[in-house]
């Protein structure tokens, strides 16, 4: 099986054949089971932006999964922004995706609700991988940055998930931890606790940290590092989000942006048009053209929350 770092690399690096206005439909997609969440991570757009909250409609989801399968998609994540374990029927959704032949079905979770009972259901559903996000190495910091006192619960759930899997080959169990230049050492602290209980634990570079630093100075956790100006938007262009993976919101829209749940990034109502029509819509093609030219001034990406200008 591919390593998770390879999968992430494939998504974040645009192959030449995809770097065009009308790329073929990617082999992977994310479909948001819910936009609701039980945590308040300060770095996540779910927390600092007003977003529409709701769960995906089952009929719509099943139609989209079938359409994804029919156009050759192999990997489907049943989440985007929001916490997938809040969705009671998630195991049934995973089972459906597997039944129709989707090769690799995965979720990312904050892990607070990954109780042994829930994990057992997900294992039984045929899930291929589960990734836990744990972005602090101790209870105090966790509560500060995630807004909820759940560090011990999450660590305990990771351990019991690992023990429950035992010698089974599936699902793969991963964990990621966000870092910025201020918190590099925290990764080691988290790693020493959870590394024995996951197949891979990897650091995720925080996006948008420069704006959080300015807006969240009073949090007292993340402080600007001298000479760190974060990643600039221009250095990130063209942004992979428009080329390598479509994100589908719970209410049926295809979003160009992986990290911002803002309707201005929606480029097709999938209740009315097909996935290919949305992926090849004129507006999305025009935005890709500007990304390829590295000139996004005047577009929706001008106000990107992930990178500084
Ligand atoms: C938006 S969350 C949705 C799934 C689930 N709620 C969770 O936290 O794992 C998906 C991933 O995005 C990461 N994430 C959120 N905000 C981020 C940021 N500002 N920089 C980098 N990764 C971020 C989370 O840590 C998580 O691994
Ligand atoms: S990172 Fe995940 S857990 Fe944290 S607020 Fe965002 S969606 Fe919720
Ligand atoms: S707003 Fe930023 S992260 Fe989102 S698609 Fe545009 S460049 Fe990418």
Walkthrough of the structure:
It is a single chain. With 309 residues, this protein is of the alpha/beta class. It has helices spanning 4-12, 45-48, 58-70, 90-99, 116-125, 139-146, 151-165, 184-194, 209-215, 233-236, 275-279, 282-292, and strands at residues 28-31, 75-77, 104-109, 129-133, 172-179, 200-205, 247-248, 253-255, 266-269. The chain has twelve helices and nine strands. The chain has a nine-stranded mixed beta sheet with strand order 6-5-4-3-2-1-7-8-9. A hairpin with a 4-residue loop joins strand 7 and strand 8 (253-255). The longest helix has 15 residues, at 151-165. The radius of gyration is 19 Å and the shape is globular. The structure holds S-adenosylmethionine and iron/sulfur cluster (2 copies).
Please work out how many helical segments DSSP would assign.
12
Strand arrangement in the largest pleated sheet: 6-5-4-3-2-1-7-8-9
Largest sheet: 9 strands, mixed
| Number of DSSP strand runs | 9
Structural class: alpha/beta
| H-E string | HEHHEHEHEHHEHEHHEEEHH
- Bound molecule kinds, no repeats: S-adenosylmethionine, iron/sulfur cluster
Mean pLDDT: 91
Judging from the principal axes of the Cα atoms, what is the shape? globular
End-to-end C-alpha gap? 38 Å
Tell me the fraction of residues in β-strands, as a range: 5-15%
């Amino acid at each position: 099986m591919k390593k998770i770092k390879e999968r992430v690399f494939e998504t974040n690096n645009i192959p030449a054949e995809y770097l065009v206005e009308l790329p073929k439909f990617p082999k992977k997609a994310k479909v948001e089971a819910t936009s609701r969440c039980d945590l308040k991570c300060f770095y996540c757009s779910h927390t600092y932006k007003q977003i529409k909250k709701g769960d995906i409609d089952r009929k719509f989801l099943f139609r989209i999964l079938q359409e994804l399968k029919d156009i050759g998609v192999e990997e489907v994540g049943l989440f985007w922004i929001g916490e997938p374990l809040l969705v009671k029927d998630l195991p049934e959704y995973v089972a459906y995706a597997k039944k129709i032949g989707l090769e690799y079905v995965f979720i990312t979770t904050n892990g607070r609700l990954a109780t042994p009972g829930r994990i057992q259901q997900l294992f039984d559903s045929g899930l291929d991988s589960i990734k836990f996000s744990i972005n602090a190495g101790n209870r105090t910091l966790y509560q500060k940055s995630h807004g909820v006192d759940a560090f011990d619960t999450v660590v305990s759930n990771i351990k019991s998930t690992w023990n429950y899997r035992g010698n089974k080959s599936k699902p793969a169990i991963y964990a990621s931890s966000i870092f910025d230049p201020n918190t590099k050492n925290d990764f080691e602290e988290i790693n020493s606790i959870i590394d024995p209980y996951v197949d891979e634990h990897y650091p995720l570079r925080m996006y948008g940290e420069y704006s959080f630093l300015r807006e969240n100075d009073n949090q007292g956790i993340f402080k600007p590092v001298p000479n760190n100006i974060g990643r600039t938007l221009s250095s990130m262009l063209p942004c992979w989000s428009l080329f390598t993976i479509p994100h589908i919101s719970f209410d049926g829209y295809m979003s160009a942006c992986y990290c911002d749940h803002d309707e201005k990034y929606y480029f097709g109502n999938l209740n009315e048009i097909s996935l290919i029509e949305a992926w090849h819509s004129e507006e999305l093609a025009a935005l890709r053209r500007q990304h390829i030219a590295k000139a996004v001034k005047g577009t929706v990406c001008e106000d990107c929350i992930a990178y500084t200008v």
